[in-house]
Amino acid sequence: MPNKTHFFSTICALMIATSVPLSSNAANATTVKNAPESEKVCAIYPHLKDSYWLSVNYGMVTEAEKQNITLKVLESGGYPNIDKQRAQLIACRDWGADAIILGTVSPTAFSQDLSRYTQDTPVFATVNHLIVDKAQRQHVKGVVGVDWYWMGHRVGKHLAEQHPKGSGVVDVAFLPGPESSGGTKPVILGFLEAVKHSDVNIVETLWADNDKELQRNLVQEVIENYPNLDYVVGSAVAIEAAISELRAQPHHSDIKLLSIYLSHGVYRGLLRNKVEFAPTDKMVEQGQLSIRQAVHYLRDEPYETDLAPKIEVLTPDSLDEQIIGESLSPSAFRPIFSVEEH
Fold first, then answer.
1. Which residues sit opposite 177 in a β-bridge?
2. CA nearest to 59, candidates 307, 278, 235, 266
3. Domain range for residue 129?
4. pLDDT, averaged across the chain
């Protein structure tokens, strides 16, 4: 398999030795014991526009309740909003957070000045890649998240296996999401690496924020511009929009859909055979792991500084209930922004 790109050089190199590491298996990061008094943890998400971060929220909320800590949740409204996220880091500090869990809006947003906003409050990166320079290393105490290169690679590998070289060219429109997102570039690199020796032909790559209307516009554009399109590959928001758009345009119903990550809408599409393939990086589990990581640190207990769930692949014929439970919040769950100790 190809080497990881420079976008995903391991952040473990940026960690200081604050603890004795446990097993590298994420499943071994279990319940924290010996809670003294309630710790205050502040979590910041890049947005809550899709069910990906809703599921991360569910994981954090349930684990915060289990660990009996106080949790405050903020969301930045989208990947362009670096200034808003900076202000939210200050707000977490002013609130008295003992630790901050950060889903950054950009890998390099705080590479040289993280401590300007957090001061001495320990930071734990979640989901999105966080790059910090040597001077900022001491402030990042842990990270949870998969290498999104491999999310893209899994999707590309699936397509390449379906359409090997010489089998006949298929046209693909690629709608990976916001261009500034931390995961978008590695997803593209992984996807391109996986399909480069196949008959997969990418006719267009278009970016937009994870907004349903923006993604719907892109779907409409590629359907109109490429009447013989075979596949749309994209973010969960794009694929959810494509499901609706293809239902409204039955003459395009032969276009196949692949998502680069899982959401509730993509899951329903898999159930109804409207979506062919989606990998999952287990968002609920990531939320749980981030809370445990922060609490272990605050309680001066050993913990693993770099945790990543195993990427699993889902198809209409392969929908494991346990994997779904580790990935998606319950359908009735709505965002929770505050958890108090009990």
1. 207
2. 307
3. 9-146+282-309+332-339
4. 90
